[in-house]
Each structure stands twice: as structure tokens, then as C-alpha cells.
Design brief:
The chain contains eleven helices and eleven strands. The model has no long low-confidence stretch (mean pLDDT about 95). Strands 6-7-8-9-11-10 form a six-stranded mixed sheet, sandwiched between helices. It has a five-stranded parallel sheet with strand order 2-1-3-4-5. Helix 4 runs antiparallel to helix 5. By secondary structure, it is of the alpha/beta class. It folds into two domains: about 200 residues, inorganic pyrophosphatase (n-terminal core), CATH 3.90.1640.10; about 120 residues, Diaminopimelate Epimerase, Chain A, domain 1 (Roll). The relative contact order is 0.11.
């Protein structure tokens, strides 16, 4: 079923790219999430319907909870792929460096279509479809299909629904718009099972993940204003729990969800001398702008960056900057603190 959605001129550019090029390399950012995987796999299905050949590459193994998605088992590591590609599409990636090693497969002078919704996107493609009104890159891919006049099959719809539901927090975040819900309803008419998808990607937890949550909550801190809270995840904690990178996802929501908190932060030890920082805000603070100052990016309400230094030093720097931002921001009428 077709929806009467507003399509910016860039959607025709993207549709033309889909039609014009073949032997396509499809990429997403390192450590892909539900929207990255849903958008690239949904687009891969569309391109296959158009008779195109696609190669899916990512620097990291696909998280187990997303392996049910059609074509997820087709991903290769960059070291497994020979040569370079002259026709490339990047999904859900704000800048070229986040493509990681996979970016080395892009030939010099390649045709590169950059499809994304992050406000911090630097338009690194030769063609760019960066829709800041979209809640998820999957929303953009759905609209590309509309521009192409293509009907979605169940496999494609499943991929796109996965990205929509994860990037809107189960349709709970402030980016849940009328258009998002119209698209989600449209995907249900194709036969998508909301319960099965949400249970797999948002509800089910591994035992190591439960153990990590328990130890992480022991680190919960809050500043004197009650408007900033944070947690810390060390390498030792992750190893003790027997967890993996996938198990860290979502931990930042615990400090963010504390009553009265405007900004929640997680500090996670990565490689030696590097700390991954995730931000979530509720109402007024633009954490995407803060992340950008530290070399990262994202959205106004959800963002991240990787900062050089040990955990305590990075924590001090980041908290100082966030406190400045919160002090200069009004208290939202719906925010209360003890």
C-alpha cells in the first residue's frame, strides 16, 4: 500500500542512484545497531528486486539478536573482500571515518550515495540524502521505495520495521512522529510481526547482560543539581560478566530515566586509553552538539563519542561540559527532581 508522503528532491536523486548503478558495495557504521542493519538490509532487498548485485561489508560481527534479519548472514569482514568498488551506498553513518576499515574498499573517485538522518552528518558522499526530519534511516529507505514505486515484501518490511522500532525506543522517544507511525502501520499490512521483532531486539536479555546491568547500577552517580546522572562500565566488569560489546547497549538509559535527570551518560572503557561516551537527554539539552565537540556526533537527544584518556579523566572533562550545558538550559515543565 502506497502512502502519500512528502518526498524531498534528494529522494529522486537516491532513486536514480539505485536504478543507474550496479555491483554495489553497501556499508554501515562500525558496531551496527538496529537502524543501521535494518536500513542496509532493507535497501539490499530493494536493490535485488531491481536486479542489482550487492556486497554487504562491516568491520564487526553482526550482533546475534539481529541475525534473524533477511540477508544478515551475507555480511563479510573487509579482509574477506577483494578489490575496491566504484559504486557505494552508505547507510546511517554520519561521517566517512565511522565506516572503519570497510571504507578502504571504496575506490578513489567512486560514486558514493550517503543515506542518513544524523544532524552531525558531514555530507561525505558524492550524492547525499540526509533527511534530518527522519527518526531513522529505515524511514528514509521506506521513502526511497515510495519514490521508486516499489511494493515491499515481508523480508524488506521486517528489516525496516526493526530500524524504526529500535531508533524510536519502541515508539516512545520524542522522534516518534505521525509519519513514523503511518509507516509502521503500513509495514504491518505487509505482515510484519511487531511482537516477534521487539521481543528479539529490545526485550530479551542474555544472562551476561543481566549481570552487567547489576554491576553497572552500582556505579550510578548523580550531580548536585539532580539533572545529570551517569554510569561507568570498565573492561573488568564486562569480562567478569562474560559479556560482549552488544551487552553494553542501552545501559545509558538507566541514568537518563532517573526522575529529574535531563542528561544521562555512560562511560565505557574501550581500547587502552580510549573511553566510549554515550549521551541521552530528555527535553532541552542538545547532546549531539556536545558529542560533536568531543569528535563524535548523533542527534539532539541521543549521541556518542570516543575520547582519549583514562575513565576518570574523561569523566571529569565530559561532566564539566555537560554541567555547563545543563546550567544554561531551562528546566522543562515536565521535569522534576527530588
Amino acid at each position: 500500500m502506497s502512502l502519500n508522503l512528502k518526498l524531498k528532491p534528494e529522494y529522486k536523486t537516491a532513486a536514480d542512484f539505485f536504478h543507474k548503478h550496479d555491483n554495489l558495495l553497501l556499508l554501515v557504521h562500525e558496531k551496527p545497531d538496529g537502524d543501521a542493519l535494518g536500513s542496509v538490509l532493507g535497501a539490499a532487498k530493494l536493490l535485488q528486486q531491481l536486479g542489482k548485485t550487492v556486497t554487504l561489508v562491516n568491520d564487526d560481527p553482526i550482533p546475534d539478536k539481529f541475525m534473524f534479519l533477511p540477508l544478515a548472514d551475507r555480511f563479510q569482514l573487509p579482509e574477506q573482500v577483494e578489490g575496491t568498488f566504484h559504486n557505494v551506498i552508505s547507510f546511517d553513518c554520519g561521517d566517512r571515518k565511522r565506516l572503519g576499515r570497510s571504507g578502504g574498499l571504496v575506490a578513489e573517485g567512486a560514486n558514493l550515495l550517503n543515506v542518513d538522518h544524523h544532524v552531525t552528518n558531514d555530507h561525505f558522499g558524492t550524492e547525499n540524502l540526509v533527511d534530518l526530519d527522519a527518526a531513522a534511516t529505515c524511514q528514509i529507505v521506506f521513502k526511497i521505495a515510495q519514490q521508486l514505486g516499489m511494493e515491499l515484501d515481508l523480508d524488506t518490511a521486517t528489516c525496516l520495521y526493526t530500524g524504526l522500532v529500535t531508533d524510536t525506543g519502541g515508539f516512545r522517544y520524542s522522534n516518534t512522529t505521525e509519519e513514523v507511525l503511518l509507516i509502521a502501520a503500513n509495514l504491518l499490512t505487509v505482515g510484519v510481526s511487531p511482537y516477534n521483532i521487539v521481543d528479539r531486539v529490545m526485550e530479551t536479555m542474555t544472562w551476561p547482560q543481566v549481570l552487567l546491568i547489576r554491576s553497572t547500577l552500582d556505579t550510578l552517580g548523580r550531580d548536585e543539581s539532580g539533572r545529570i546522572a551517569w554510569v561507568t562500565i570498565t573492561r573488568e566488569m564486562l569480562e567478569t560478566a562474560g559479556g560482549c560489546d552488544e551487552d553494553v547497549e542501552g545501559l545509558v538509559n538507566y541514568p537518563r530515566n532517573v526522575e529529574g535527570v535531563e542528561v544521562g551518560i555512560s562511560f565505557r572503557e574501550g581500547l587502552p586509553g580510549k573511553v566510549k561516551v554515550s549521551f541521552r537527554s530528555k527535553y532541552v539539552v542538545d547532546v549531539g552538539a556536545i558529542a560533536l565537540e568531543f569528535g563524535g556526533g548523533g542527534h539532539a537527544r541521543a549521541a556518542g563519542c570516543t575520547v582519549d584518556g583514562d575513565v576518570e579523566a574523561v569523566k571529569a572533562r565530559v561532566l564539566t561540559r555537560v554541567q555547563e550545558a545543563v546550567a544554561g538550559a531551562p528546566v522543562h515543565p515536565e521535569a522534576t527532581a527530588e
